[in-house]
Design goal:
Elements lengths: L3 E10 L5 E6 L13 E12 L7 H16 L20 E7 L2 E12 L2 E9 L8 H15 L4 E7 L3 H9 L3 E2 L9 E8 L12
Parallel strand pairs: 6-7
Antiparallel strand pairs: 1-2, 1-3, 3-4, 4-5, 5-6, 7-9, 8-9
């Protein structure tokens, strides 16, 4: 599994919050405008495939689940599975984001069907948020799903995570019906990862 890189380009002006945009290689990085009086910094983020039951993935998953519990309370029913085996080869993957050698985020893929993967355990540590890393992580997971041969990605999120829903919508996910019976979710999304072959298009 190849290592992936992303460039986060943040332009920060005095008295203003950081603005950032990111993309994963080999796509060209998105550009942010730099106006007078701003300072532009580039942060290199590496996405490395790892085993989900080994460090640092294990600690990041623990932090992810702790945040879910803080937001939604104790589990009130059975939730969809996301085991280390499901998020590992040959049908799954787990990526850890490193910034200056420090793990700052993670996300996994599990197989739902022959051509559909589900994105699980997306998480960015609090001190690395609001800088475009979540969008870059999502893009890296989509690229890995395509590499594994999946044509669609699905995901879900809950009502108390509006920023996640905004991110997914802006990344091209369309709302679909409940596909996994997650008791915490109120939004389920799907995105086609590449265009269908000509013979699969409607009317052909």
């Amino acid at each position: 599994m190849e290592q992936k890189l992303a460039i986060v380009d943040s332009s920060v002006s005095s008295g203003a919050s950081a603005r950032s945009m990111a993309s994963t290689v080999p796509q060209a990085p998105l550009q942010t405008g730099v106006t007078a009086g701003t300072v532009s910094t580039k942060v290199i983020v590496e996405f490395r495939p790892v085993w989900a039951d080994r460090e640092p993935a294990r600690s990041l998953i623990v932090a992810t689940l702790a945040e879910y519990e803080r937001i939604y309370g104790n589990p009130r029913g059975e939730t969809p599975s996301a085991t280390a085996a499901e998020m590992g080869p040959p049908e799954g993957a787990f990526l850890v984001a490193y910034e200056d050698g420090r793990p700052v985020g993670c996300g996994g893929l599990k197989r739902l069907a022959d051509e559909t993967a589900e994105i699980k355990r997306m998480y960015v540590v609090p001190e690395a948020r609001s800088r475009g890393l979540g969008r870059s992580l999502l893009s890296a997971l989509e690229e890995e799903a395509k590499r594994l041969g999946y044509r669609r990605a699905r995901l879900d999120t809950g009502a108390r995570q509006p920023h996640a829903r905004t991110l997914y919508g802006s990344a091209g996910y369309a709302a679909i019906s409940d596909y996994n019976r997650n008791p915490y979710a109120d939004y389920w999304g799907e995105k086609r990862l590449w265009a269908p072959a000509p013979h699969e298009r409607a009317g052909t």
